[in-house]
Every structure is written in C-alpha cells, then in structure tokens.
C-alpha cells in the first residue's frame, strides 16, 4: 500500500470533494422530428417555407414507396416486403480514383448503369449497399437494411417505417459519392442526353430539394423522423455536400458539362449552407464562439 503524505492529501482531497459537487450545466433532449405542429410555433413569416418543405417531403416519400409497391404487384409471387440488395459500404465499392480515361470505358458505364438503377424517384441514394454489383430488379429495395442497430422499440429516434430507412441519405458519403462517379462518366460521354448526365441532374436537384429553408440538410430525405430530421454534421454529411456543391459551382474538369444555371444554384445553395454552419456555432453566455453538435434541431 502506498500512503499519501498528509501535506499532499490536504491538497488533493478538496479537489475530489469539488468534483463530487459538480453542477449539471445542460441536458441533451431527444431529437424531435420536423412536424406541422412544430412549424406552427415559428414566426408567421417563416412558416410558409417550412410547410412547403414538409409537404414536399411527404409527397416525395409517398412517390418513392409507390414505385416499389407497384413493382411488387407485378411479380409472379408478390411479397409484402421488397427484396434486399447485397450489403456493402457503397462509397467503397464505387471507384473514384481511376485514371480519367477509364471513366469512358464500357466497364465504367456498366457500373454507372447499376448506380442509376438504384437511384430513388427523389433522386438520391441510400447507404451500405453494393450498387456496383448488379442492376436493381423489379421489387428490389433501393437499399440493404440500413436501420440503426442501437435503437429499441419505442425510442424517439425510430424511423417512420422500420422497413423504409435511410432512403435516400447523405450518411456515410451516400449520394455525393454516386454523383461524383456519374459526373466522371458523364464528362467523358459525348451524348448530351446520356443516362449518366440525366441521373446526375436528378441527383443535383435532390440536394437542392432536401436543403432546409435555413440552409442546413437533414441526414435523410424524404424525412425519416427522429434525429434523421436534424441538421447533420456527423459523418461529414453537411460539409461533404458543401464541398461537392463548390466543385459543381466551379464548373471545371468533371463538372464542365453542368449548365450555368445549375452551377449558379449550386453556388447559392453552398452559400446558404455556410450561413447555417455559422448560425449553429454554440456561443457561451460571455460571447465566446465554441463548437457544434453532431446534429442541430432544424427549427431551433
């Protein structure tokens, strides 16, 4: 046993006593979904933009699900649940580091076809799915089961529908990775109406449509409830979107084919996103600017 000298004990023990009486300086409440009831509490001037956003999300979610439901009805043995594609980290199965000439090859266009087949009607993609493996088949889900492994029944962060989770999303580099790949293929395809260009334009519109009125982006869109509806910084979601939009806005290299009108929209969207980053910085009561959270409530 090592004995603490009395003089040293007199210095240390008051520190332990102070630690035992530490105060709670804040709480981390459950993330709230974006709802019409919450929007109704906002100032009247900003409510229309948020109501329109929520309405578009609801309509788009219904359209996405309707496509799968219609496909399931056409199958010889229809199932109540869509088939699940092969699991993988899609950002790691989509090559972005090949020589520029490779993206004009038949192999590259085949992967692009696979990616396009898994694009949701909204224009985005999910995560944890090997989009380079095969073409999506009728009745096949847009994603492998991507639900959280840590949620329990009754948790506030449960999605609206456990069978329809993370479709589409910016989580784990999803959507921006697919768009970067399609841009590389489209840039080397002389056909202005190429499938890769058309899918890229739809994906770019997905980013524009999913941006909150205050400039942030949710983790999942159409909205999925819980923390998925919050402005999301973790896994580089918002920052990766901004970097991508700045690449598009510059109109160089892989993005030279993007029309000037869309590059201007990308510039404006990136500016609103940067304003959101500034607005969500936590400021202490004495005015010191500090950090940000993984998620920030979209409305507060």
Structure description:
The protein is built from nine helices and two strands, in the order αααααααβααβ. The relative contact order is 0.12. By secondary structure, it is mainly α.
Overall pLDDT score: 85
Could you give the order of the helices and strands? HHHHHHHEHHE
Structural class: mainly alpha
> What is the overall silhouette?
globular
Helices and strands, with pairings:
Elements: H1 6-20, H2 36-39, H3 47-74, H4 90-93, H5 106-117, H6 176-187, H7 195-210, E1 231-232, H8 237-250, H9 260-279, E2 295-296
Antiparallel strand pairs: 1-2
What descriptive keywords fit this protein?
300 residues; mainly alpha; two-stranded antiparallel sheet; 2 strands; globular
Summarize the structure.
By secondary structure, this protein is mostly helical.
